[in-house]
Structures are given as structure tokens and as C-alpha cells.
Specification:
Keywords: Bacterial flagellum, Cell projection, Cilium, Flagellum. InterPro entries: Flag_bb_rod_N, Flagellar_basal_body_rod_CS, Flagellar_FlgE/F/G, Flg_bb/hook_C_dom, FlgE/F/G-like, LlgE_F_G-like_D1. It comes from Sutcliffiella rhizosphaerae. Belongs to the flagella basal body rod proteins family. The protein is built from 2 helices and 19 strands. The chain has 273 residues and is α+β, with helices and mostly antiparallel strands. A hairpin with a 5-residue loop joins strand 9 and strand 10. The longest helix is centred in the last third of the chain and has 36 residues. The chain is elongated, with a radius of gyration of 29 Å. The two termini are 25 Å apart.
Length: 273
């Protein structure tokens, strides 16, 4: 009887974590460059139940020996195995703001992705698809959370004027003169990246990714005056949230039924008249 409690509880915990993930996706539906998380549920390993018993051989000296009788498999519930961002490009939205920059994927090797390179507060590289940049008081191109945007040589990009042009290959022209070229990093396996908050990603050991320019099979454009919208499908997310809530509620009713049965067993069946 208690195994049923554990199985239903595991289902409730899994659906609660799934609901939290979906709620986070929905709250970031308007965050530029945000990549929606996706989850996978997996069942715990099944247990093969067997009954242990003894058999007697009626001889002059009775012989007892153990034997097993198979009852059947027992499922022990599910768990949320992992969550991983879905690295699918979002729609492009024009803004007219010179410091808004977007990456348009044209051709990428399967499973890979490309990102802007920024410098974290501790000096280690971070990667983002959120090109909603700004210029600080010293003229450095930064993210809204204060990270410096880096060029292809991993140097900070400083622009003297807010009027600048960015070519489709990422080259920055200031008054017709080449300033630098924005750094676009190439991740051979995008799922190796770890979320680091504020739309940033990093590798496990804060390693640096190679540049995407010149990488075989990688073709992209840099669009000035555009931002990439999140790839959250709000309608599908709402549907998934409803499904997760109903599954949570179903497991909750199972626990209530077990609780009622246990209450009857304790208060009625075991009562001596």
C-alpha cells in the first residue's frame, strides 16, 4: 500500500518541476534571444517482485528448501530527468536602434549554434543570443546587465559615436573606418552550454568557444537594428501547463484515495467489536 504513496508522490514532484519550467518559459516569452527549456520525464527502473517461500519434502527426515515464485514487475514512478534549452532561432524584430544586433542563422552544422561573446564580471567568457545592447559612458558596447561585448579577438568594443554601421559579416564601421568585428562564437554542440542567468551561457570549465567566421558549413548574417525574439511558443506552453496541472491533480487524487483506504484500515477493519 505504501508503495502507491511513493509512486504518486514522484509523479506530483515531476509535474511540479515541469510546471516551474513552463512558467519560466512563459515569463520570458518577450525576452530577446531567450531559448525555451524543454524537459524529459523518465520512469524509475522497474522492480521484479518475487515471493520467497519454503517447500517441504515428506520424507523420514523432512527436508525444507527455499523457492521463489514470480509475482510480476513493479513500477516505482517517474522523475524529471533533465531540462535543456531548445536552440531554435526566434523571429527577427526590427527596432531601428543601432545598438540592437541580431544573428541570423543561414546554415549551421546539425546540433550546433552561434552566439555573441561577452565578458563576465570575473573576466571569463559568456555567450548570449540577446543582442539588446547599449553603450556605456565610456562608449563600450555592453549588455543590459553590464557585460562587455567582445570582438573576434576577445577585446572590448569601444565606439566613439552612437552613429555607427555594422556590416552583415559583423564588421563595425565608424565614420567609414573599420573599428573592429564583433565576436560570433561557434558551439559545435549547443547542449554542452550551461545556463548562467540573464540569458547567458558558459562551458563547464569556462572555456572559450572558437569563432564562427571561417568555420566550415557555418553561414550567418549580423543584422543591425534588429533583435531576435524568444522562441517560446506561448500557445503550446499554455497547453503543456494545462496538461501538467491535470497530471498533478490526478496523482493528488490517487494519494487522497490511498489515504482514505489507510484510514479505513486503521479505524474500521482493525476495530474489535
Amino acid at each position: 500500500m505504501l508503495r502507491g504513496f511513493y509512486t504518486a508522490t514522484a509523479g506530483m514532484i515531476s509535474q511540479q518541476r515541469r510546471m516551474e519550467m513552463l512558467s519560466n518559459n512563459l515569463s520570458n516569452a518577450n525576452t530577446p534571444g531567450y531559448k525555451a527549456d524543454q524537459s524529459s520525464l523518465r520512469a524509475f527502473p522497474e522492480l521484479l517482485m518475487k515471493r520467497m517461500e519454503q517447500a517441504n519434502i515428506p520424507t523420514t527426515k523432512p527436508i525444507n528448501f527455499a523457492q521463489q515464485q514470480t509475482i510480476g514487475p513493479l513500477n516505482t514512478g517517474v522523475y524529471l530527468q533533465e531540462t535543456a534549452p531548445k536552440h531554435v532561432q526566434g523571429d527577427m524584430r526590427p527596432t531601428g536602434n543601432d545598438t540592437d544586433i541580431a544573428i541570423l542563422n543561414q546554415q549551421l552544422p546539425e546540433g550546433s549554434s552561434i552566439f555573441f561573446t561577452v565578458e563576465n564580471q570575473d573576466g571569463t567568457p559568456r555567450y548570449t543570443r540577446n543582442g539588446n545592447f547599449t553603450l556605456d559612458q565610456q562608449g563600450y558596447l555592453t549588455t543590459n546587465s553590464g557585460q562587455y561585448v567582445l570582438d573576434e579577438n576577445n577585446n572590448r568594443i569601444q565606439i566613439q559615436s552612437r552613429q555607427f554601421d555594422m556590416q552583415q559579416d559583423g564588421t563595425i564601421l565608424e565614420n567609414g573606418i573599420v573599428n573592429s568585428r564583433i565576436g560570433i562564437a561557434f558551439a559545435p554542440n549547443a547542449y554542452d552550454l550551461i545556463r548562467d542567468g540573464n540569458g547567458l551561457y558558459r562551458l563547464e570549465n569556462n572555456e572559450a568557444l572558437p569563432q564562427a567566421a571561417g568555420n566550415p558549413g557555418t553561414v550567418f548574417q549580423v543584422l543591425q537594428g534588429h533583435i531576435e525574439r524568444s522562441n517560446v511558443d506561448t500557445a503550446q506552453t499554455m497547453t503543456d501547463m494545462t496538461s501538467a496541472f491535470r497530471a498533478f491533480e490526478a496523482n493528488q487524487k490517487v494519494i487522497q484515495a490511498y489515504d482514505t483506504t489507510m484510514q479505513k484500515a486503521a479505524n474500521e477493519i482493525g476495530r474489535i467489536n
